Amino acid sequence: MKIERDGRAEGPVISGIIARGFRVDDGVYEGLLISPSRADAWSPPPIEALGADDVAPLLAEVPLPEFILLGTGSRLVRPPQSFITALEAKGVGVEVMDSRAAARAWGVLRAELRAIAGALYPLN
Question: Is 0.85 topped by the overall pTM?
Fold first, then answer.
């Protein structure tokens, strides 16, 4: 699937969903941490073990993201409540969806110049 960009947002662009992952600019990532300033490969733990430390690079962003799009793989899976509580304590919300939906939402929200970040599990 190819994702189109309207050209207004700066930073990394998720331009496609392929096999188990995502095409971002000139790279391909299975697991992905993405912010307005960078995109990095991510090897996440099993969703039930996900903790705030696993997304620490996103929490180091300036400005802090309004929320993190958490893509949980090929289907929506609820992360541990402790993960959500830890991020909310830092003032960061969590929007949970499957990783394909998170990749599409990234483009829409960045086109609106929203200060967001994404943590996308590989597509299994």
Answer: yes
